[in-house]
UniProtKB/TrEMBL annotation:
<keyword id="KW-0813">Transport</keyword>
<dbReference type="InterPro" id="IPR017871">
    <property type="entry name" value="ABC_transporter-like_CS"/>
</dbReference>
<dbReference type="GO" id="GO:0016887">
    <property type="term" value="F:ATP hydrolysis activity"/>
</dbReference>
<feature type="domain" description="ABC transporter">
    <location>
        <begin position="44"/>
        <end position="262"/>
    </location>
</feature>
<keyword id="KW-0029">Amino-acid transport</keyword>
<dbReference type="Pfam" id="PF00005">
    <property type="entry name" value="ABC_tran"/>
</dbReference>
<dbReference type="InterPro" id="IPR027417">
    <property type="entry name" value="P-loop_NTPase"/>
</dbReference>
<dbReference type="GO" id="GO:0015658">
    <property type="term" value="F:branched-chain amino acid transmembrane transporter activity"/>
</dbReference>
<dbReference type="InterPro" id="IPR003593">
    <property type="entry name" value="AAA+_ATPase"/>
</dbReference>
<dbReference type="GO" id="GO:0015807">
    <property type="term" value="P:L-amino acid transport"/>
</dbReference>
<dbReference type="InterPro" id="IPR003439">
    <property type="entry name" value="ABC_transporter-like_ATP-bd"/>
</dbReference>
<protein>
    <submittedName>
        <fullName>ABC transporter related protein</fullName>
    </submittedName>
</protein>
<dbReference type="GO" id="GO:0005524">
    <property type="term" value="F:ATP binding"/>
</dbReference>
<keyword id="KW-0547">Nucleotide-binding</keyword>
<dbReference type="InterPro" id="IPR052156">
    <property type="entry name" value="BCAA_Transport_ATP-bd_LivF"/>
</dbReference>
<keyword id="KW-0067">ATP-binding</keyword>
<comment type="similarity">
    <text>Belongs to the ABC transporter superfamily.</text>
</comment>
Length: 262
């Protein structure tokens, strides 16, 4: 798809947000208590976001509403600003103007570390693992750092294939396996909001489908999920709400089915 679809009104996002469940979220994240209920079912609200790198502005006043306990897809062609948006939400790229609110609290100045501690986690790509450590140690590091009461067990229950790989050095795994490990590590940190960048990139459709299915499971259990992806069928199929970015601006927000049929 090269031509972005027409702009839809922002209140689609608010309407979708209204059906979300904060109680299910608390259960799904294994006991992490969200820092406040999501007012109006809104997890994150980015308003008038301008951000970029050096002299280059990438986001030009982006507005984004992420419903709690739903799957939000950020779609768009290469360079549209999807990864930059996730980095802004994670606190890795600062806002030059605009605000970010999380469950009603303005967190524009909150550090990336503090956002992660509160459960706002970004899985950037398959490099989000320690290549020189074993699979077991990759998982242990997170389980211990975050005090997961169940150790690495939740990760192995979610991704049984990792049980056979525990002694393997993460750097020697395939791209799909490293993706799985990166998601497993994020799971152990008990995310309130899980952001995943380009999950399907470089993966076979079968492996990508497996990982999307897992994401759908944790979203169904109440975790808020934000995906940045190309226009893949899998991303459209699992999303509750889709944003299409075009040159750092929103060109569509609404029902992913409208895009799938476009
Ligand atoms: N670290 C960086 N330094 C300078 N420019 C960057 C940096 N990261 C991204 N950009 C530029 O910002 C623009 C948006 O990039 P971004 O990665 O956010 O887009 P994207 O929609 O995620 O694209 P893709 O699907 O290719 O990952 C691009 O023009 C890119 O070259």
């Amino acid at each position: 798809m090269s031509t972005p679809p027409p702009r839809a009104p922002l209140d689609n996002a608010d309407a979708i947000a209204a059906g979300s469940s904060a109680a299910a979220l608390a259960a799904a994240v294994g006991g992490r208590v969200p820092h406040a209920p999501a007012p109006g079912g809104i997890e994150l609200r980015l308003t008038g976001a301008r951000a970029g790198y050096g002299a280059v502005e990438v986001l030009h006043g982006l507005d984004l509403v992420v419903p709690a306990g739903k799957v939000t897809a950020l779609l768009g062609v290469n360079g549209a600003g999807k990864s930059t948006t996730l980095r802004v939400l994670a606190g890795l790229v600062p806002l030059r103007s605009g605000t970010l609110a999380w469950r009603g609290d303005v967190i524009t100045k909150l550090s990336a570390l503090d956002r992660a501690r509160r459960g706002l986690l970004l899985v950037p790509d398959e490099r989000a693992v320690f290549a020189s450590l074993s699979v077991r140690d990759n998982l242990l590091v997170v389980a211990e750092a975050t005090g997961n009461p169940n150790g690495i067990t939740p990760a192995l229950d979610a991704f049984p294939k990792l049980r056979d790989r525990l002694p393997q050095r993460a750097g020697s795994m395939s791209g799909g396996e490293r993706r799985m490990l990166a998601l497993a590590r994020a799971l152990l940190a008990r995310p309130t909001v899980l952001m995943v960048d380009e999950l399907s990139l470089g993966l076979s459709p079968k492996v990508a489908a497996e990982l999307f299915e897992w994401l759908a499971t944790i979203a169904a259990a109440g975790t808020t999920v934000i995906l940045a992806d190309q226009y893949t069928d899998a991303a459209l199929a699992m999303a509750d709400i889709a944003y299409v970015l075009h040159r750092g601006e929103r060109s569509f927000v609404g029902d992913p089915a409208e895009l799938a049929n476009a």
